[in-house]
Amino acid sequence: CSSDLVGCGNGAFTDLLVQRCAPAQVQGLDPSLEQLAYARSRPSAMIATYHLGDAQALPFEAGRFDAVTMALVIFFLPDPAKGVAEMVRVARTSGSVSAYAWDIIGGGSPIEPIRAEMRALGPTPAHAPADDASRCETMRDLWQTAGLVGVETRQIEVERSFPSFEDFWTITLQGSILGPAVSRMGEADRQRLREGVMARLNARDGGEVRYRARANAVKGTLPA
Known about the structure:
Blueprint: E1 2-6, H1 12-21, E2 25-30, H2 33-39, E3 48-52, E4 65-71, H3 80-90, E5 91-102, H4 112-121, H5 136-145, E6 149-162, H6 165-173, H7 178-183, H8 187-200, E7 209-221
Parallel strand pairs: 1-2, 1-4, 2-3, 4-5
Antiparallel strand pairs: 5-7, 6-7
Helix pairs in contact: 4-8
């Protein structure tokens, strides 16, 4: 089985794919040199090859892969339909095309505690170019419009945990589209935001922070 990971990021999902599915080959693609450098340091790099590139213009020939997947990426694409069309193009007949994305519209994103508090305080939270593409209904429509069959969607719930609120705050704002927006806030507003998020997470007394997040997933098959 050959696999293509569109938007492979730091390689965490690639590691899981290699461990659980034992593919014959894996090709990963991401627009970030820093993310690719980290991915190449992971165990999966023993069989995975990583490329710098654009999800809307995959550098692979048509019909190459048995499975093509996009993890936590589709809402970042300026044109999600074009990204799906590219995945379909490089998939083999009867190949699998799939994706999952944080349920941003439904409040399932891991950064939702901060987004919710920003909405309560007044400023409009930063958002990805295509938040609506994270909805199950939207992904189903994209997959069916691209000509895929046997399209299925499901929701995946996960529990997020951090040793402390400070860990949550620092890690969540790193690499997040919210990070720049929060850094531009005045000191007083930033402190109000921080305290409000602490209250939402019941983290005022210190200790571990736990909360639930939710992703939407879709899969379909390229017809014979």
